[in-house]
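Fold this sequence, please.
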Amino acid sequence: MKNITLYIITFTLFLITSAFAETYEVQMLNKLEKDRNVFNPSILHIKSGDTVKWISVDKGHNIAFTKKGVPEGVELYKSKINTDAEYTFNTSGIYAYNCTPHYGLGMIAFVVVDDDLSNFDQVAKIKYPGKSKKLAKELLEQIKNGS
């Protein structure tokens, strides 16, 4: 009887948590105003259990978690090019991601889960290529300042 009660409580908590989870959309774009090859938005603050859906508005893009750019214990995720993708974030921390073909051209973005900046230094130490280096510095400064 204890096991059944525990199961019911666990299942109920799961349903309650799922009911409050949200789905956010990020567009993968060739151009946004003066910028080329961008994720819109480039910084997203969410809660554990929320899902991000990347919309392939323009062709030629994907989403790939950046090596050393995720909280400890999280496996790297990578979608196919030209397809929508989604991922549910269950671990707190900063997630750096990029578009594989346009990484060096500055197509990077960040998801911050539960406002947890515990892996900030690790993400800041990534050797971002090309234009991503300057953009990463700007975006990480915004994250650090709570923007």
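The chain has three helices and eight strands. The mean pLDDT is 92.
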